[in-house]
Amino acid sequence: MTSSTIGLMIAVFVASFVECVEAFTIVLAMGLTRSWKAAIAGTITALVALALVVVLVGNSIGSYINASVLQLLIGTLLLIFGLQWLRKAVLRSSGLKALHDEEAIFKEEQEAARRAGRETKAGLDWFAFVVSFKGMFLEGIEVAFITVTIGLSARDDNPDALFHASMAALAAAPVVLVMGLIARKPLSKVPENALKFSVALMLVAFGVYWAAEGIGYFSPSKESFEWPTGKWALVWLLGGWSLISYIAVRALKRYHNARGLSIHSTAASKTSV
Amino acid sequence: MRFIKGFFQFWYDFIVGDCWQIALGVVLVLGLGAWLARGEIVSKTAIPPIVGIGIVAVVLASLLITSKPKAKH
């Protein structure tokens, strides 16, 4: 296994870990407040649906599109998605956006579960089933998106990249489950912002790397470009983006402390979590 | 029709999110890269770093816009 494959798997595993923590909060709230049977059924149904998405989308897209075009399209999507995460992580780190609070979300979900009616379908508490399904599916679709984009873009170097990325994504779920069973409460001590920050840096580095190479499709030869220093460019990109993000966080903190501004007084507070 | 609109809205919110400026900036930078590639205006080795620098500029601009104080009425 090459070092770039290991890097991809780490990025996908950490992304999956963070999203599983968020999904666990919702499923735990439903299980404790309504019905464990319905919560588990909703979670498993969502995981099966996500696996189908990865297999169908991953295998169909990769078969019909020119390699450079695929790199450009997937790299662009990954880059835009990754920059979203990076922007939010920078704003949270600089105090301009509220941190993700698993305890608060858990209490909200429990409150909603207590207020909801008691409808049963197929022998399941339907509210708990639907909320658990939606929670797991919506958090998981981000992981599926990252898995498919990274898996497809890395195929030139590693034909089994999609498989490796999928395995890395799946590996996070039992880890979160075990942690949750031990903690028996929302995993609020997990440093989510730090983890999302590191995943965002990796997604942006990979996204820039592949999108820029895919631009080669527009050249007369229609072949992907190569970065100076080849694959080592990923290391420079990751290091460069880390440094830029660090400087941005420091600068934003200093600028807003100097003006006595808080998370409620900037345009950043309007942005969704 | 509502289903189709909802489907595209979901994916727009998912990928672009609440900061369309970043998505637009990325597309413009990549468009610039494509133009440089098509016209062979610079060496092909230089294009990826140019694109990388362009993306950095987009992100920094987005952070500056987002972190500005809200306008008082």
Description:
The complex is a heterodimer of chains A (273) and B (73). With 273 residues, chain A is mainly alpha-helical. In chain A, 74% of the residues lie in helices and 1% in strands. Chain A has one domain (3-270). The radius of gyration of chain A is 20 Å and the shape is globular. The two termini of chain A are 36 Å apart. Chain B has 73 residues and is mainly alpha-helical. The longest helix of chain B has 20 residues, at 20-39. Chain A binds chain B through residues 72, 76-77, 79-81, 83-84, 86-87, 90-91, 94, 96, 141-142, 145, 204, 208-209, 211-213, 215-216, 218-220, 225-228, 233, 237, 240, 244, 248, 252, 255-256, 259, 261, 265-272, and chain B through 14-19, 22-23, 26-27, 30, 33-35, 37-38, 40, 44-45, 47-49, 51-52, 55-56, 58-60, 62-63, 65-70.
Write the layout of secondary structure elements.
The complex is a heterodimer of chains A (273) and B (73).
Chain A: H1 3-33, H2 36-64, H3 67-93, H4 102-115, E1 120-121, E2 124-125, H5 126-153, H6 161-183, H7 192-214, H8 232-258
Helix pairs in contact in A: 1-2, 1-4, 1-5, 1-6, 1-7, 2-5, 3-5, 3-7, 3-8, 5-6, 7-8
Chain B: H1 2-15, H2 20-39, H3 47-66
Helix pairs in contact in B: 2-3
